[in-house]
Amino acid sequence: MLKRAIRIGVIVVLTVFEQGHRTSAAEIEVDLALVIAVDVSRSMDEDEQRLQRSGYVDAFGSNAVHHAIAEGITGRIAVVYMEWSGPNEQNVVIPWTVVDSPERATELAERLAKAPFRRVFNTSISGAIDFSIKLLGESGVHPVRRVIDVSGDGSNNTGRMVTLARDDAVAQGVTINGLPLLIKRLTGLGHIANLDHYYQDCVIGGPGAFIVPVREARDFAGAIRSKLVREIAGVIERNALIKPAQERQVLNC
Predict the structure, then answer these.
(1) Whole-number Å distance between alpha carbons of 181 and 217
(2) d(CA 16, CA 38)
(3) CB atoms within 10 A of CB 228
(4) Packing angle, helices 102-114 and 46-60, rounded to 10
């Protein structure tokens, strides 16, 4: 009788453990693991930084983003917000956060709005991509898709070649999208003509990769909101936002 009771007890414990393990696994399954990689290099002045930050704050507080999250298979995403500049200059502002409701999205926006600003020197998009891959490996979630969202107003000017970082990320099944900022006129401080073409040819890659160029400050909030909705929903547009590379000369990355 004692042995039988012990066996039953073991079975009960194992059953409870297995159910708890399945519940725990289900809790960390997400539709999207998203790294938001934001340029804070010297070329980004204070106005651009505030504009960029407020755009993400507004987006995560918007009904459009809340609806896109809710419409997913699991109804939740995981987000990390990271600022970057040089090859070894990256700073996680908002660590990995699972967003599964409008309340959680709003909380994320409020935390982001309170975070301090910082400016560093060089512009290493390759360093940002490499660090983003590291962050994806530390997310602690099981995503259906993995996306790196890179924004900035200049080209890669330090660190390894940006195309090498991009290709390594894409080889791991990661999609890189871009938000090139073309608000300021060329000043010689890391800015290049046709930054949208540069992002198209040298930065983005992977399934459904796209860019959303921002040319006017008044368009910034809407651009970020629409970009996040596309990334969360996994929508692939039939018409490119800029002309395909075959219709112009490909840039030298």
Answers:
(1) 9
(2) 44
(3) 27
(4) 160
Q: Between vectors from CA 153 to CA 223 and to CA 156, what angle results, nearest 5°?
A: 130
d(CA 142, CA 25): 8
Point out the least confidently predicted range of 48-57, 129-138, 221-230: 48-57
Contact criterion met (CB below 8 Å) for 124 and 87: yes
Alpha carbons 54 and 214: distance in angstroms, whole number = 14
Residue 184, CA distances (Å) to 32, 42, 54, 70, 200 in order: 32, 14, 18, 36, 19
d(CA 121, CA 151): 16
State pTM to two decimals: 0.84
Residue 210's pLDDT is: 96
DSSP state of 243: -
Least confident of 10-19, 200-209, 225-234: 10-19
Annotate 110-131 with b (16+ C-beta within 10 A) or e (fewer). ebbeeeeeeebebbbbbbbbbb
d(CA 51, CA 183): 11
Token pair 């459904």 in the structure block, residue: 208
The length of the chain in residues reads 253
Q: Which residue carries 């938001």 as its tokens?
A: 36
The answer to whether 91 and 105 have CB atoms below 8 angstroms apart is: no
